[in-house]
Design goal:
Distance between the termini: 31 Å
Largest sheet: 6 strands, mixed
Helix content: 25-40%
Bound molecules: guanosine-5'-monophosphate, manganese (II) ion
Structural class: alpha/beta
Low-confidence stretches: none
Strand order of the largest sheet: 6-7-8-9-11-10
Radius of gyration: 20 Å
């Protein structure tokens, strides 16, 4: 079923005049696309709208033209919107939402089935939607208000990145129909595809090549591929982990691999990304076991363990249990 935004939510949201928009930490294409798509849609309506982005977004998205704030004062706004955020603690809010006493005009729009942003005045989750961008697009079209080519370009961005260019299992007729309607707004599709999928810096490709040749391990009879990104490799290629979107897909490209895992070290533990190629073996429950979440076929968690070898042992057990279950 195509995304249906409740009319009560739609009319309450559009009553706002001054909007502050948030998305999740470590923003990806859907986070960026939905936040800036929503902002652009609201600007199209003559409203005030800002995106609060406390960190630099991945470099490839800068070409889309991202005008955002590093800090904001909640007193300057009457409406607050979080997009693509599954959990309150994952909203990159710089404390603004946390300190907002009255959350009745806080809207959360999301597509993660693990969503638990229950403190929002309105929390809308459609876990069948491919992307938060599909949810925002539904809202924009349902409003019957006109919107610009730029809004459509942002919204198409998250649909393209969250579906891997319409390759992943979250691709269906609804998202393709929505994408077609956005394209009809005059989006320069070739330019957008080049930005999103064909703009890798040369050193990133070299980094990925060495990661693949030196770090990939395959286990569980060829069904589980995983890699740990060592700090030395990041230093060697001056590669920042905020640019890592899509790297895990290199592991799932391997024939026969069902579950892929990419791990790197963060200050608060190991960041684990998981992907599945077969709905019989979902990865969300594995991430949930470690306090993480996401989607059935794409999930993540932060895991506190002393060494990667400890994590490797635990995940080999978990993943083989899923694959053999
Ligand atoms: P990624 O592996 O690209 O970081 O994330 C895959 C999916 O899982 C995304 O939808 C992301 O929002 C979600 N995700 C990643 N890490 C976490 C986490 O620690 N907690 C929750 N709740 N979701 C996560
Ligand atoms: Mn998303």
């Amino acid at each position: 079923m195509a995304v249906q935004i409740p009319e009560t939510l739609l009319s309450a949201l559009l009553q706002g005049e001054k909007f502050l928009i948030f998305t999740h930490v470590r923003p990806d294409g859907d986070a960026i696309g939905s936040a800036f798509g929503m902002r652009s849609f609201l600007l199209d309506q003559g409203k005030k709208a800002d995106v609060l982005l406390p960190v630099d977004p991945p470099a490839r998205y800068l070409k889309l033209g991202l005008d955002s704030l590093r800090e904001a004062d909640s007193n300057d706004y009457d409406t607050f919107i979080a997009l693509d955020c599954a959990a309150f603690h994952r909203i990159a809010d710089n404390g603004v939402l946390t300190n907002l006493a009255d959350k009745s005009r806080f809207f959360s729009l999301d597509h993660h089935f693990t969503n638990n942003v229950d403190c929002a005045g309105f929390n809308f989750v459609d876990s069948k939607a491919s992307s938060a961008c599909e949810v925002v697009s539904a809202l924009a079209f349902q409003s019957n208000l006109a919107f610009s080519k730029q809004t459509a370009e942002f919204l198409l961005t998250g649909m393209l990145t969250d579906t891997g260019g319409f390759k992943f299992s979250n691709t269906n007729g609804d998202v393709l129909r929505m994408a077609a309607k956005l394209l009809d707004k005059g989006v320069d599709f070739e330019k957008l595809i080049n930005i999103l999928f064909f703009s890798k810096p040369e050193r990133q490709l070299r980094f990925e090549s060495e990661l693949i040749s030196s770090q990939i391990k395959v286990a569980c009879g060829g069904k589980f591929a995983y890699a740990f990104i060592p700090q030395e490799l990041l230093d060697k290629y001056n590669f920042s982990l905020k640019e890592d979107e899509g790297i895990i897909d290199l592991l799932r490209e391997i024939d026969g691999v069902v579950i892929a895992m990419l791990v790197h070290k963060q200050e608060d533990g190991f960041k684990v990304s998981l992907r599945s190629k077969d709905p019989r073996y979902p990865v969300a429950p594995i991430a949930a076991d470690f306090g993480g979440g996401g989607h059935l076929m794409a999930a993540g968690a932060t895991v506190e363990l002393p060494e990667f070898s400890d994590l490797e042992k635990v995940f080999l057990e978990k993943v083989s249990a899923v694959l053999n279950g």
